[in-house]
Amino acid sequence: MLLLFLSGQASAKLALLLEEPFGAFGYFNPTGHAAIYLSQVCAASPTELRPCKPGEFGVVLSRYHHVAGYDWLAVPLLPYLYAVDSIAEVPNTVDRGTESALRDAWRRDHLRELIPDARDGGPPRGNWIQLVGALYDRKIYALEVETTARQDDTLIETFNDQTNRSRFNLFFHNCADFARVVLNLYYPGSVHRSYSADLGMTTPKQLAKDLVRYAERHERMGLEIFVLPQVEGSISRSSRVDGVVESVLRKKYVIPIAFLQPYCAAGLVVTYFTGGRFNPNKNAVPLDRTDLVESLLDRRQPVQQEASRRSLSVAGQEDGSPLVSPRMGAATETVPAD
User: Which pTM value belongs to this model?
Assistant: First the structure.
């Protein structure tokens, strides 16, 4: 599967990627991960940005914990989702062995200077695995809004000029804080941390909730929400993403709190029901694999692109923008090999 909804060249897009938690850490801390996708910004290197060239799919930016000593890293869209460089290499299903092999192969080809081999010559341990193959481990919600070339240029200049050294802190300088800074650079005042629902911590779900509310007041943003399903296979499915207070209630942590401090527990319940709830599935459109792959393949055939854009505009998008809506239904043709 590939990101059809962000595949166009005619207009710039930004998407907040709200990523579900997985594994043991995700169970105890179900706030998930946040990243930013930009359709017209690309990576000159993992630490330097540039405008995209025709046919490129954009970049994913995020903050990671102790990865090569950098505060943020940039990874092209396709490797970020699937740890491959070619559409033809995207697997239909995956297991742990395949996932590890794909990730390590991409690391060796593109990140070896930043993330060198372990002493035994194999892949190193660490959080670098979150840089590539994200859809193997978790489901991702993408909240997409319109941007401009001027906004993209401002981001590129700002990030290329600033010091890029790790300052990660789970409570005050995490991945969601990074996404908050980027979103507010494009749309000032659009998102913020919550001192009630998240006890002052910035969480991915709070950003998604704020972005939806802000877009409701600013229709020009053209908000669309999409669901990128986790790749099928034997890898355990990711779990739902929660805010801080929400996780306390859902994980039953509130029970000992209620025993020791009943008024505090009551306050948490009231906070959740008055401002802590947000369902990312509401109005979200699930993406179909065939539609997505065909759209990106079309981008490699410039002669066919304009005709394709016109037909899609007639089918459902009057402005001729590149989004192939899953509401049109799944394509019936066989996807050609790359």
Answer: 0.79
